[in-house]
Design brief:
Layout lengths: L3 H7 L7 E4 L6 H7 L5 E5 L11 H6 L3 E5 L7 H10 L6 E6 L3 H8 L7 E5 L2
Parallel strand pairs: 1-2, 2-3, 4-5
Helix pairs in contact: 1-2
């Protein structure tokens, strides 16, 4: 089910005041539309790529606060580690390379079509 269907349906009972967008499956514009007026959109990283098409009037008309956040902070690390350990969240892995192929992994890391983490496997 597309993101916008349940999110926009939720607006009937009150849209969220904030939302995050991290994945190409949820385009930025759909996230903007899911917010109630005065809401906040947090863009985390650039998983969909460095460019997104946004209707600026949708930001202005609804007074949406759009903020970028490249990473978290050290206070969030214990919480994230607990979520990872519980299997609640899983990292998106683009590719896995053996340590002997670290140079190829570095090339993949800077590739513009990379989506997710590049992992070096030891052993």
């Amino acid at each position: 089910m597309p993101f916008k269907d349940p999110a926009i349906a939720w607006r009937q009972g009150g849209a969220p005041t904030s939302s995050t967008t991290r994945r190409a499956a949820r385009p930025v514009q759909e996230s903007i539309r899911s917010l109630r007026p005065g809401g906040r959109l947090i863009g985390m990283g650039s998983h969909p790529g460095p460019r997104a098409e946004i209707d600026l009037y949708s930001l202005y008309r609804h007074e949406i606060d759009f903020r970028g956040a490249h990473t978290g902070n050290l206070r969030e690390v214990p919480e994230v580690l607990a979520l990872l350990a519980a299997g609640t969240v899983r990292p998106v892995v683009d590719s896995v390379f053996p340590l002997a192929e670290a140079a190829a992994a570095q090339e993949r890391l800077v590739s513009p079509d990379r989506f997710g983490k590049v992992v070096l496997s030891i052993g």
